[in-house]
Amino acid sequence: MKTKTVTYSRTINLGNYNSAKLEVTLELEDAEKAEDAVENLRNFVKRELSKELDKDDGKQRLFD
């Protein structure tokens, strides 16, 4: 069976009963490997959430 889409989601605690979640789904090209796509999605989500955390009190340390 061939994988057609991959999804990566990450939720982080911002404290004070708040959280941030980002979920991304990618449709794979014919030659694209699911493992590579997941790694790319993981990096993308981490980068985008880091931008938001930088705006919100510099809590980027959650990714360390």
Short description:
Helices cover 34% and strands 33% of the residues. The protein is of the alpha+beta class and 64 residues long.
Please, could you describe this protein's structure?
The chain is of the alpha+beta class. The protein has one domain. The protein has 1 helix and 2 strands, in the order ββα. Strands 1-2 form a two-stranded antiparallel ribbon. The model has no long low-confidence stretch (mean pLDDT 81).
Largest sheet: 2 strands, antiparallel
Number of distinct beta strands = 2
Q: For the terminal residues, how far apart are their CA atoms?
A: 36 Å
Question: Could you tell me the strand content as a percent range?
Answer: 25-35%
Return the domain count: 1
Q: Give the overall form.
A: elongated
Oligomer: single chain
Helix content: 25-40%
> Low-confidence stretches at least 5 residues in length (pLDDT < 50)?
none
Order of strands, widest sheet: 1-2
Order of helices and strands: EEH
Helix count equals: 1
Query: How large is the radius of gyration?
Result: 14 Å
- Output mean pLDDT: 81
User: What structural class do you assign from the helix and strand content?
Assistant: alpha+beta
